[in-house]
Amino acid sequence: MSSYGFWMISLALLYTLALIIVGNVAKRKANRGEQYFVGGRTFRWWTVAFCITGLFSGSTYISIVELSYLTGISAIWYGVAETLQVLLIALLLIKSFREKLIVTISGLIGDQFGRRAKALSGAITAFAFPMWSVATAIAFASAFHVFTGVSLSLSVAFTAILLFVYLQSGGMWAVAFTQTMNTIIFAIMFIIGTVAFFINPGISGLQQLAAEQPNMFDWGGAGLQVILVWFATFLVNVILAQAAFQMALSCKTPEEGRKGLIVAEVMSVPFILLGILFGLSAAAVVPDASLGLVALPQYLMEVLPAPLVGLFFLGIWACALGWGAPCQFSGATSLGKDVGSAIFPGASPEQLVKYTKWSLLLLTGLMIVFGFLRTEQSAWWNVLAWTMRNSATFAPVVAALFWPLVTKRAVIGSLFGGFAAGLTWYHLSNWHPADFFLNIHPVWVGMSVNILVMVLFTVAFNYGNWKITNSRSVKGAAVLAAIAVLLVVNAFFYESLHAAGVVGLTLFLNVLAVFIGSIIYIKPKVAEASVQKKVVS
């Protein structure tokens, strides 16, 4: 083991040990369900800000470092898309979700549509989260591999076990403390990385890189399809961001939660800009690496002494913790609390906490298995996780919030149909992370089927209980116009859209417009009758 490996491992172990000790102290506060799952809903705005920064900004930083090494400054759009997502959650959802005391998305579905829907959505959601955890843990594992020679798979296993030991203790209290401490480590990482930049390559080095590879400074270098997918995925994820909701909804009041999310927006800016700077620096100094996350430790080894490199990668470890810990905890909450309560409806809060801790062990095992199956492709796990979770739960969540006509049968069919369609399309794409069947991303196929099954099942199996209203609202007219325009665009510009790789997105937008139109125009008869009765009286 090199001196770089010694410093990196020693600092990571010491830091994690300190967090584990504090987590056991937090255990005293987490002895009941509400305390364990949402911190007793007592978090102030700064705690929410630290939590969201560690969750989204840490994972975004890792993605941007990798993307900027490969595609240059166009990686900024990934950060902009993520920032827009958090802003929309703060402005549109945090108040209503906090007032409803929502803990998980699968719990929201189950409360509205019954135990079977809760069990199915909870299981799908839970098994998606270890995939996201693996994708981010690969960043730390890559440096671990470069410095020590230990395989990436074993490095991911090491990460998973540390996460498990830590999260077993204090639940959401432990996550909140982790994110607060991680923010301090992030600042140290940024200072060290900036020093490394000015040592080599410096401003002149970036100017030389721009002359040799001008494509690295092209704002659209990542490709239109990829950039649009970033924005569309994050926008769709606004109502599905369970780990973010679980932390933000632990706030004392909706106002505290909203303020924390907005402050987290401001705190995300250095992660985006410095992630691009460090990725470009690695590209200038180590141009021949296949992965940016491998090039980064190689670059720092050339310009900094071992202790400083160790501190920098303690920041990468903090990013892995900042994303992986909430993901594993939120997934375990869906499996332990939601699936557990669906199977055992009489379970006490203490029993649900116990089920969640067992679920953490199971998801840790899955994370390790995933790490051995396909460690070298973090993008692959991200695509699979998005496809699984979003293809199953998007329409049911929208229905739970906005369409009371939907039946339990329609929700179960939607969960199964979207999930199966997304994975089938991914299979037809030979499980490739970027080269998809018919040049259509599987998540658009899965979510489109998810919506269509729900609408068709609701209309067909609820026949006689609904009627089409004569709505003359502006939003109704706008939706009808959007449906018409999208149909024309898809019909007349299909070839161009397909060549650009966005035909799947435009087709999904068409289906989404139909879904919104159905919610506006197809109403329960009983509800209308009751309204008329009130008007007469």
TrEMBL record:
It is found in: Membrane. It comes from the Bacteria. Coiled coil: none annotated. InterPro entries: Na/Glc_symporter_sf (IPR038377), Na/solute_symporter (IPR001734), Sodium:Solute_Symporter (IPR050277). This is Solute:Na+ symporter, SSS family. The chain crosses the membrane at residues 6-25, 45-64, 76-94, 119-140, 146-167, 174-199, 219-240, 261-286, 306-325, 355-373, 379-403, 410-428, 440-464, 476-494, 500-522. One of its GO terms (cellular component) is plasma membrane. Keywords: Membrane, Transmembrane, Transmembrane helix, Transport. It is a multi-pass membrane protein. GO terms for molecular function: transmembrane transporter activity. PANTHER family: SODIUM-SOLUTE SYMPORTER-RELATED, SODIUM/PROLINE SYMPORTER-RELATED. Belongs to the sodium:solute symporter (SSF) (TC 2.A.21) family. The keyword Transcription does not apply.
